Amino acid sequence: MDVRGRAILGTFFHAPTPVALEVLSDVLIEVDAGGVITSVLRPTDPAYARAVADLGEAIIRLPAGHYGVPGFVDLHVHAPQYPQLGLALDEPLEIWLQKYTFPLEARYADLDFARERYQVLVDDLIAGGTTTALYFATQDREASKLLADICIAKGQRALVGKVVMDDPAACPDDYRDASAAAAVADTREVIDYIRNQKDNADARVLPVITPRFIPSCTDEALAGLGQLAAECGCHVQTHCSESDWAHGHALTRYGVTDAEALDGFGLLTRKSVLAHANFLTEPDMDRLVARGTAVAHCALSNIYFANAVFPLRLALEKHLHVGLGTDISGGPSASMFEACRSTVQASRLLEDGVDPALPAAARGRPRSRIDLVTAFYLATTGGGIALDLPIGVLAPGYRFDAILIDSTARGGNIRLFDMNEPAAIFEKILYGASRANIARVWVDGRQLR
Questions:
Q1: Helix or strand run (H / E) with residue 147
Q2: What is the pLDDT of residues 345-389, one digit of tens each?
Q3: Final residue of a structural domain among 350, 368, 387
Q4: Considering its fold, how many domains does the chain have in total?
Q5: Helices (H), 140-235
Q6: 302 phi and psi, to 5 degrees?
Q7: Would 333 be classed as within a structural domain?
Q8: How far apart are CA 448 and CA 439, in angstroms?
Q9: Is residue 1 a part of any domain in this protein?
Q10: Which residue among 143, 255, 366, 424 is buried most deeply as judged by most CB within 10 Å?
């Protein structure tokens, strides 16, 4: 049921701004042959009745109990870590990396090993409604190309980065770049490969420069990647001030914060996404706003590894670009529905506080909570803004990346009974939807599920 070159009629939800849900009741969405939305007509629009009559049987009509939403944008996925999802979450970050994560990622140099696991990951994310994913691949150049190939073949919108980690003092002997020069050269090769891949002429899959984080990279590698970013105009992704340990590393090494250090290497651009960023100072936030750099807020994984709750409300009030990430596998769920829920929950914990021994007035951080609509905005519109891509909104000029929710699915977790108030249905979907409720997934109007 491709929507390319066709029109689809039904009720959709989207959030073009962080503060209000927009209910598109019985709208007619027209999509061109390339998957771009050309019009969104409401029943009150003068052209609506004529368009419905002219298109007739060519219209795709959503069945009763079915609702459309924009596809989810996951801003932080460690693709090779999918096999360890839900494992070893009791370890501190630096131990978790060295003991479990790096050895697993090193195995992806075996392309047969990598292919099986990457195919399952991409299939599962699509089935869960993730239409766009920002992927950390591995340090291996060829395995990074393979992940891009799989995303291209399966139709997912993706950004894929070969991970750079070249510091012998911090990285395992069997899992690191041979040198800073080799790391930059391999990154350049992966960029060129993705841009020129014969089946990627529409650039649905993009390359992204990916220093893992400052603790794993030499200054030479970071400087070389900053120069490469200026030269090629690629997206950039890395971790920033994720935990006490990671935040403290930059302060000890440079005498400045992670964000300021990354900026000095030319790695904060309009197309940069910093994962976690829990310990950003207010001057750091102002720096990111000035650069147009975004944060991938990973509320669920922050519970396990970040030692603090990201001050999301403050970031939004400063007009910092923010989207959501699952952080597979630091977060034990691949679901962006779960990312929305945990984002709301974490914000309330920050506002209310967690120590019952303290009086209520001293227990939390006032005015920190966000609601479900804002979380949904971040998972859709916010992710598109972070990546500077026309996705996440159901409006003319945007790509038709969307999910069809079947609230009647017997194996799903949504129970509406006789409920028909749109805002309540939206809440039921966001809090209750499971994989069984996802009836269709479209990217560029092409049905993937």
A1: helix 141-154
A2: 999 999 999 999 999 999 999 999 999 999 999 999 999 999 999
A3: 387
A4: 2
A5: 141-154, 180-196, 219-232
A6: -60, -30
A7: yes
A8: 11
A9: no
A10: 143
pLDDT for 275-305, tens place per residue? 999 999 999 999 999 999 999 999 999 999 9
Tokens 């080799």 locate to 182
Would you state the structure tokens that stand for residue 124, as one six-digit string? 């599962």
3-state secondary structure of 25: strand
Last residue of a domain, one of 370, 387, 404: 387
- Give the structural domain span for 406: 7-70+392-447
Strand intervals (E) in 112-234: 130-136, 157-161, 163-164, 205-211
Does residue 307 share a domain with residue 169? Answer: yes
Region of 149 (left: φ > 0; alpha: ψ -120 to 50; beta: rest) is alpha
CB burial of residue 39 (10 Å; 0-12, 13-18, 19+): middle
| Omega of the bond leading into 329 within 30 degrees of 0 (cis) | yes
Residues 40-57 pLDDT 10s: 999 999 999 999 999 998
pTM tops 0.85 = yes
Is 90 exposed, middle or buried (CB count within 10 Å of its CB: 0-12, 13-18, 19+)?
exposed
In this structure, is residue 297 part of a structural domain?
Answer: yes
Residue 363 lies in a domain: yes
